[in-house]
Amino acid sequence: MRKICLLGSTGSVGFQTIEVISQNPDLLKLHSIATYGRNPNTIINQVNKYNPKYVAVYDEQTAKKIAESVKAKVLVGIEGIMQIVEDDEVDLVVSAIVGFIGLKPTLRALEKGKQVALANKESIVVGGKLIQRYIDKIIPVDSEHSAIFQLIQNRNIQDIKEIILTASGGPFWRKKQSQLRNVKIEDALKHPVWKMGHKITIDSATLMNKALEIIEAHFLFSVPPEKIKAIIHPQSYVHSLVVLKDNNVLAHIAKPDMRIPISYALFYPERQENNFSPFSFTDLYNKKLEFYEIPKHFRSIKFAYSVLSLGGVFPTILNAANEVAVDLFIQGKIGFLNIFDIVEDTLSCYGGNNYKDLTVEILEEVNDWARKTAIDLAKKSKIYIN
Ligand SMILES: NC(=O)c1ccc[n+]([C@@H]2O[C@H](COP(=O)([O-])OP(=O)(O)OC[C@H]3O[C@@H](n4cnc5c(N)ncnc54)[C@H](OP(=O)(O)O)[C@@H]3O)[C@@H](O)[C@H]2O)c1
């Protein structure tokens, strides 16, 4: 029985992880869950249905409310989350909180020797160098990285000529820059393939999701940035490709269903049968599998290579400015294209030390600086809608 601590249980990855666990009651057990606390009723339902021992709730008020309604032990704040990941009984931590906040619990889990199924890409983008120390303990959940992970198992890294990440392209990749100026929030939230949380859905629309994934791939697989490419593949059947030095090309194909990479991560190194989007070769009959270059006006991709070449704290600045810009866009305070402007301006404002020896404290300090700078830049500019 593998005991699982699930960070972000009320999110899209969280729900799908619970589905995988509940389909395998003899093999997997939900040991503990963590959420921000925006949906108290969902948390209470999860506790009543799956009986985790601990519930960590970031928001103090919600934590108090939950404690009155459930039998499980309720812990509070980031300290509560840190406590559940390091519990002796936990075998695997699923890191599926969204955003920078996922860094500390992910690192704590790794430091305590836990296996981590990593969905929270922001933590490896900002803390790649710190997380790399424990790389053998990580199983990626992002479908592209799960694909690459499976393709390169037991291969010599020197044999890899190129990694090609595929991107669905989100709802807007066919649009010209001028057509993007007035896109509405509800249109940006309509992803053509995946149903995900708001942050990653907007990141898919700006292709910042792919930019973060380029950085994630660099740290996960120790492949230099110039060997990592991203292309658009609207059908999302091919999850990624690996080109070997003798020009053999390996591709990973599966239907777009996050329960497949989640299941792979929960059972790794074994595989477990499931009924999630079964594949038949007949599915490919008359199916177009298209591939396109990412249009240059999606500046996110350029930002990814730029922060990778600058290294140090720059991926953290990119991530923080993007988190702020996405929030402002969702609140209707800035336009869609302004997300790129805020990220670019915040990156170019940084005049501090580009530390090579990073610590969590340095990353937190730079994250705070970048968030504040991004907000100030937005508010001072003409783009801000009061
Ligand atoms: N969705 C996908 O298909 C997918 C695919 C690949 C990778 N990912 C990555 O997986 C992560 C989660 O994505 P998602 O789509 O599942 O996001 P989501 O639906 O927005 O869910 C986010 C989860 O994080 C929790 N959370 C947010 N802030 C927190 C805090 N301060 N403390 C504790 N919990 C907190 C939320 O709790 P509340 O409900 O209380 O807000 C929720 O449970 C992201 O990093 C994303 O990039 C997602």
Q: Features of this protein?
A:
Rna Polymerase Sigma Factor, Chain: A; 3 domains; binds NADP nicotinamide-adenine-dinucleotide phosphate; alpha/beta; Rossmann fold; globular
Write structural notes for this entry.
By secondary structure, the protein is α/β, with parallel strands linked by helices. The protein folds into three domains: 2-141, Rossmann fold (3-Layer(aba) Sandwich), CATH 3.40.50.720; 142-308, no CATH class; 311-386, RNA polymerase sigma factor, region 2, helix turn helix motif (Rna Polymerase Sigma Factor, Chain: A, Orthogonal Bundle). The chain has helices at residues 12-22, 40-50, 60-69, 77-85, 103-111, 121-131, 143-151, 177-180, 185-188, 198-206, 208-221, 259-267, 300-310, 314-330, 338-349, 360-380, and strands spanning 2-7, 28-35, 54-57, 73-76, 92-95, 115-118, 138-140, 160-167, 228-232, 238-244, 249-253. The strands form two sheets. It has a seven-stranded parallel β-sheet, sandwiched between helices. Strands 9-8-10-11 form a four-stranded mixed β-sheet, with helices on one face. The model has no long low-confidence stretch (mean pLDDT 96). NADP nicotinamide-adenine-dinucleotide phosphate (NAP) is lined by residues 8-14, 34-39, 58, 81, 96-98, 101, 119-122, 142, 194, 196-200, 258.
